[in-house]
Design a protein that fits this description.
The complex is a heterotrimer. By secondary structure, chain B is mainly α. Chain B is 88% helix and 0% strand. The longest helix of chain B has 38 residues. The chains are: A mainly alpha, B mainly alpha, C mainly alpha.
Chain lengths: 329, 95, 109
């Protein structure tokens, strides 16, 4: 029955993708991309991959939509005319699709218990997690301990992406004083005139922040972790910026504090790794952080998830502020 | 019983998608995205219960939050675009 | 007790499913933006209350019920707010509540 639901959702995904490609209005494409992200998140959820579904929903359907809209505000809304090499592109895409489809004939059937991934890799992680790390959520254990290098790389990729976007968007510099005077005051971001969304949003922001902290620290017991929590906390600040205006949000959490948060997160992760070396073992070996190696692993995972959450929050909010500041010109 | 509710929610999601693809104005599309989001929250809650995994309800809550923030962001985008067009028009007329 | 719980939750779930479906059909068939908005937002909130209430009755008194109550409360507060903000935006953009008569086509696609 779940397979039927999955097939139905995937059909909707294909229809949405066709709609996105077909439309010429980029704004409609952004809306449809939001729906696409939701469908993919629901599909991940049906496949029991809760952490991935949470990250996809938080980042893909929420933050991505906001950033796309920021980009649309800076450019135009209509797609440019089609390039003359369309048939060549179509031929390349079709042949690549056929190759990929042919490659899937060799894969084991869905859910086959004799597939290699269920024989070697999966059971090893499931056995070793209670022995080495002893936390209920195996995904967090794999992400934090067994594949810690990958996650370190991911944090630095997010950090680099944030710095790259900030370089690109602050090329114009802050608006000159004459421009700032000429700009009418109402063009600043803010739903200030709308009382009801403002009241409701102000009511909700503390609870969203609390939920973000819950997701951050609950990552060892259920779906959650640093990436999702970072996206949720950034979303809370974005909500505040939408109703109260960007100025007040910058007063609440200034740009320098955001930069410091981003850098501190990445340094925390790297620092925990180096602490492994300093305390006599290898890089990113958390078992030396406490007298009991299992406790050390748990402490290590909490610290690195905190680092990941800090970096993701800082980067997403910095990008949002960079877009919003450009929109004023 | 849960299957029936999940099936109803899926059908409604498909109908909302059709409205998103067809809707003549952008507000139709925003409406259908909002509705799609709420239905996804319901679908996630029902399936979390069906599968006997109540700790997956965190996803539904996070999704409800994100949906709300997304819709407000889109509406804010429209407002600032309309205000900018108004400012451009008034500046154009005063030249 | 188990039987009563089951029957109550089945009634709530069936009602919720019915309203969810009605909302979907309404959004597709109504002639104008505002009528569609009415169909979507009213049935959204009501359907969510019934479905989540039905699941809550089934869950008994546990952590899952508290999480469901949180989701329910959140949807109750934010779903009408989003509909209000959407209707307000549409009205300010100039779309008239008459059936079939749109606003200035150069203002929005």
């Amino acid at each position: 029955m779940t397979v039927l639901f999955g097939i139905f959702l995937l059909t909707l995904v294909v229809i949405t993708a066709l709609g996105i490609v077909h439309t010429k209005n980029l704004f409609v494409a952004v809306m449809l991309l939001g729906i696409f992200s939701l469908l993919i998140a629901a599909n991940f959820f049906l496949l029991d991959a809760a952490d991935v579904a949470l990250t996809e929903a938080a980042v893909g359907a929420g933050i991505s939509t906001v950033l796309f809209l920021g980009a649309l505000a800076l450019t135009s809304e209509r797609e440019r005319a089609a390039t003359p090499h369309r048939w060549l592109s179509l031929a390349v895409v079709v042949s690549a699709t056929l190759v990929v489809l042919y490659a899937t004939f060799d894969k084991p059937t869905f859910g086959d218990p004799n597939a290699p991934v269920h024989q070697h890799v999966g059971p090893w992680y499931l056995e070793k997690t209670p022995e080495y790390v002893d936390i209920p959520n195996v995904v967090t254990a794999v992400l934090g301990t067994f594949r810690g290098y990958d996650t370190l790389g991911e944090v630095f990729v997010v950090f680099t992406a944030g710095i790259g976007v900030l370089f690109l968007l602050s090329g114009g510099g802050p608006a000159s004083p004459t421009e700032r005077r000429a700009r009418p005051a109402e063009s600043a971001i803010g739903l200030r005139d709308d009382l009801i969304p403002r009241v409701v949003a102000r009511l909700l922001v503390p609870f969203i922040l609390l939920f973000g902290l819950y997701v951050q620290f609950h990552g060892e017991y259920g779906p959650g972790g640093g990436f999702q929590a970072g996206a949720l906390i950034a979303a809370a600040f974005i909500l505040y910026a939408l109703v109260e205006g960007e100025g007040r949000t910058l007063e609440a959490l200034p740009r320098k504090a955001l930069m410091a948060l981003t850098v501190a997160g990445a340094l925390l992760y790297g620092g925990v790794g180096l602490a492994g070396i300093v305390l006599g073992s290898e890089f990113l070996d958390y078992s030396v952080l406490a007298s009991n190696p299992v406790k050390g692993q748990q402490i290590g995972i909490i610290l690195i998830e905190l680092g990941v959450g800090m970096t993701v929050t800082g980067v997403l909010l910095s990008i949002f502020h960079a877009f919003a500041a450009r929109e004023q010109t | 019983m849960y299957y029936a509710v999940a099936a109803a929610t899926l059908v409604t999601m498909a109908l909302a998608l059709i409205r998103a693809l067809r809707g003549p104005t952008v507000y139709d599309r925003v409406l259908s995205v909002n509705m799609f989001g709420t239905k996804t929250v319901l679908l996630l809650s029902v399936i979390a219960f069906l599968g006997g995994r109540p700790d997956f309800l965190d996803l539904a809550l996070a999704y409800a939050l994100i949906n709300f923030i997304g819709v407000l962001a889109v509406l804010e985008f429209f407002k600032s675009r309309a205000a900018r067009r108004l400012a451009e028009r008034s500046r154009g007329e005063s030249d | 007790m188990g039987m009563v719980q089951d029957i109550v939750s089945w009634i709530l779930l069936t009602g919720g499913g019915f309203f969810v479906l009605v909302g979907g059909i309404g959004v597709l068939r109504m002639p104008n933006l505002y009528t569609r908005m009415h169909a979507a937002s009213v049935t959204d909130t009501l359907g969510a209350v019934l479905v989540l209430g039905g699941i809550m009755v089934q869950a008994g008194l546990s952590l899952a019920a508290i999480k469901l109550a949180a989701i329910l409360l959140f949807l109750l507060i934010t779903s009408p707010t989003s509909s209000y903000a959407l209707a307000h935006s549409a009205l300010l953009a100039g779309i008239q509540p008459d059936a079939g008569r749109g606003a200035d086509p150069e203002d929005h696609p």
